[in-house]
Amino acid sequence: MAETDSTLVALLQQRCPRCHRGPLFTHSAFNLTRFTQMPAECPVCGQTYEPEPGFYFGAMYISFAFSTGIMLVVGMLVYYLLGDPDTWVYVTAVAIASVLLTPLSLRYSRTLMLYFFGGTRYDPKYAARR
What we know:
Elements: H1 7-12, H2 59-82, H3 87-100, H4 102-117, H5 124-127
Helix pairs in contact: 2-3, 2-4
């Protein structure tokens, strides 16, 4: 994978916070049985992806914020596009959107948790290792 100096691009691509090259997840987000699996460390620079036991419990709060945002956006879209339909339409639309976006919500909440609270910053000298 190509190296990037941009932390935002590396975060969006779900790459290691130290080298911006190693993947944070072992499988695609579309693999519904393994989309949560992360390697223990970066295959490029060796950075550990779990700084302490239970580190990703804090990602639940970020995921909650994502889910709340998804529900608000879907609710507003249903209201404006369908002209304030019955309550069951809102519930169905929000439930379907929440379930379909769960893999992305979980992965990006873990990525944000690692980038903001993992204590690691980009270091170009690690990008060339291995």
